Amino acid sequence: MKNSGSLLTHLECVTCGKKYSYQEPRTVCEDENCKAILSAQYNFAACKLMKSELKNRPATMWRYREFLPVLNLENIVTLGEGFTPILPLTNLGKHTSGRQVFYKDESLNPTCSFKARGLSAAVSKAKELGVRETVIPTAGNAGGALAAYSAKAGIKAHVFMPKLTPIAFKAEVELFGAEFREIDGNISDCGKLANAEAVKHNWFDVSTLKEPYRLEGKKTMGYEIAEQFGWDVPDVILYPTGGGTGIIGIWKAFDELEELGWIGKKRPRMVAVQSENCNGIHTAFQNKELSSAFKDNGFTLANGLRVPKPYADKVILKVLRDSNGNSVSVNDDEILAALREIASGEGSFWTPEGAALWHAFKVLTQSNRITANEKVLLLNTGSGYKYLENLLPYIRR
Question: 356, 311, 351: which is closest to 333 by C-alpha?
Fold first, then answer.
């Protein structure tokens, strides 16, 4: 077997600490009183890689293959995902004055979003474990990414998507050859049906944080942030928070990098940004609660933020607390105004989820929760072009 050098040792429940083997497909902790997410663990003490050696590796997320879960290089399913650029916001000085403000442009990933990272890792590991059929409930981008990577891997994908999702997301799923099912409801409704069908047909469920390896792909954003900032981290990171895999993954990455000795103890303040229509995490954080309530007030331009209750809500809230972070809730009018401002000012067409961060940034600066001279990073998670069906009626009014 041609080994990739992965240092994976086991999976571990983030709540009760129970350990599991990585040698068969896993979902969540099997303890009926727990059912928390599983986190991949690695033997960092055995790492021989020097961070200076990374410059000679391909500019994809698999440059960090020792800290990703695939054991055999031949099982890596890649379309060139990762190592997306970090760019400065240079033309919006009246809002950024005195602050270094950057954005990481995840729209340049395959399938035009950050979801490519998680699904590359999840499908690669599924292939390694002999999985033949997968299923996912999705607000859009994750379904397209699963369909694309499954096509590359020769795995059959089943995608459940809300009817209100823009047609571009539906079209790509079908073009990539996945079975597509349109559901009259939200992503939680899709999740219930997808889970029932998974049990019935023995499909492997790759729902957000209900399997351990999408998190591993998403954490590579954290590895890249540190490397691209010269093995330092920003003072503040704003992240659009639906299911929350990215915010958990970036935090995990920083802990792993410290264990490797590649960064120090400094951590950014993590900020979760949500839609006003679906802001359970924001409400829980502001009220100092340990878990979030189910919250869904219907349609939002930012489809990816319509997640009524994230499976890992407790973990997301812990990251916000541990980082001395914050949360902001944004409405659709504010998202649209922010999207216009970024597009006309910077020439970049952000996803509505990403645009929500720009408004949140302004809210935090106006209230002095982001101060002068701080280095701030916004994660633009995808491309606005996929959302044109939603956006055009508002842009032309």
Answer: 356
On whether residue 80 sits in a domain, the answer given is no
Extract the tokens encoding 179. Answer: 């079975």
Residue 151's H or E segment, with its range, is: helix 141-153
Position 3 in a domain: no
Q: Per-residue pLDDT averaged across 279-299, rounded?
A: 96
Residue range(s) defining the domain that contains residue 44: 8-75
Sheet of 38-42: strand order equals 19-20, 8-13, 38-42
Pairing of strands 133-137, 38-42: unpaired
pLDDT of residue 183: 94
Nearest Cα neighbor of 26 from 202, 213, 207, 211 is 211
Encode pLDDT of 82-101 as tens digits.
Answer: 999 999 999 998 888 878 99
255-269 per-residue burial string, b: 16 or more CB within 10 A, e: under 16:
ebbbebebbeeebbb
Distance CA 324, CA 150 (A): 39
227-242 pLDDT, tens per residue?
Answer: 999 999 999 999 999 9
- At 258, list the tokens: 């410290």
Residues in the chain: 397
Model confidence at 259: pLDDT above 50 = yes
Q: Cβ-count burial of 201 within 10 angstroms (0-12 exposed, 13-18 middle, 19+ buried)?
A: exposed
Identify whether the C-beta of residue 167 lies closer than 8 Å to the C-beta of residue 303.
Answer: no
Span 154-185, pLDDT tens digits: 999 999 999 999 999 999 999 999 999 999 99
User: How many Cβ atoms are within 10 Å of 21's Cβ, its own excluded?
Assistant: 9
On whether both 154 and 302 belong to a single domain, the answer is no
Do 244 and 298 reside in the same domain of the chain? yes
Sequence-distant (6+) residues with CB within 8 A of 162 are 139, 182, 183, 184, 185, 186, 187, 189, 190, 303, 306
Number of neighbouring beta carbons within 10 Å of residue 88: 11
Q: Report, as an integer, the average pLDDT of 349-370.
A: 96
Place of tokens 């590991």: 125
Q: How far apart are CA 6 and CA 73, in angstroms?
A: 9
pTM over 0.90: yes
Decide if 234 contacts 222 (C-beta within 8 A).
no
Rounded distance between C-alpha atoms, residue 242 and residue 68, angstroms = 23
Q: Is residue 188 part of a domain?
A: yes
